[in-house]
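Supplementary Methods. Inverse-folding protocol.

Structures were first reduced to a discrete structure-token string of length 221. This string, shown here, constituted the complete conditioning input.
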């Protein structure tokens, strides 16, 4: 069962919205780790980063940010990273900031089919986060019951066919498969206790994808 929640970081939401004016529903994957996984959540975050298919195309900077206590506090660190994503470099930076009330965020890019006068496979912004158990990530869940890891995939329209655009069904289906492949690889790599795939408005996006793929003659695994 695919299961997620919103990031709760207002400034970052505005940045995503600016790239997709008129579209406000964001897509999130939230992961709750098992008790043993939660005890070494930073190691699990490293596994996520090493597994994630970051774009190798020419792209804007990635950004590492570290925050303590809650999302209203100014970052302890915000550092741009040039060139292809280097997990070892990121983890070296994170190692200087520890604590149960600390959150790590990596804003970077992965490749999706996107339409702008024509279809092209190009970098789309994505955000990966790891939350300490005492960090308040801005959701409606109590601190300590919030997710341990989260991926913010941007607007849900990247994963929904747009019938008015020629070629949409086939290329958006490719985006869906990339998303689901990642989710299943995370299941096989991390000690996942629960996960959710939802939009910011609370829609169970797994059900929506099932409908899309069923219409296309495929089954959501």
């Amino acid at each position: 069962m695919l299961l997620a929640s919103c990031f709760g970081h207002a400034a970052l939401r505005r940045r995503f919205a600016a790239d997709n004016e008129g579209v406000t529903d964001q897509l999130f994957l939230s992961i709750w780790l098992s008790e043993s996984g939660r005890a070494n959540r930073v190691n699990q975050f490293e596994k996520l980063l090493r597994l994630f298919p970051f774009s190798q195309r020419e792209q804007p900077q990635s950004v590492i940010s570290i925050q303590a206590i809650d999302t209203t506090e100014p970052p302890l660190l915000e550092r741009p990273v040039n060139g292809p994503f280097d997990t070892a470099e990121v983890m070296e930076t994170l190692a200087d900031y520890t604590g149960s009330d600390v959150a790590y965020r990596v804003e970077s890019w992965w490749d999706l089919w996107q339409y702008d006068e024509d279809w092209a496979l190009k970098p789309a912004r994505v955000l990966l986060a790891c939350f300490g158990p005492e960090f308040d990530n801005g959701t409606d869940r109590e601190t300590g019951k919030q997710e341990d890891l989260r991926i913010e995939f941007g607007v849900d329209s990247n994963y929904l066919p747009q019938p008015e655009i020629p070629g949409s069904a086939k290329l958006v289906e490719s985006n869906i498969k990339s998303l689901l492949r990642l989710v299943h690889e995370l299941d096989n790599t991390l000690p996942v206790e629960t996960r959710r795939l939802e939009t910011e408005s609370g829609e169970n996006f797994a059900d929506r994808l099932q409908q899309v793929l069923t219409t296309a003659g495929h089954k959501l695994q």
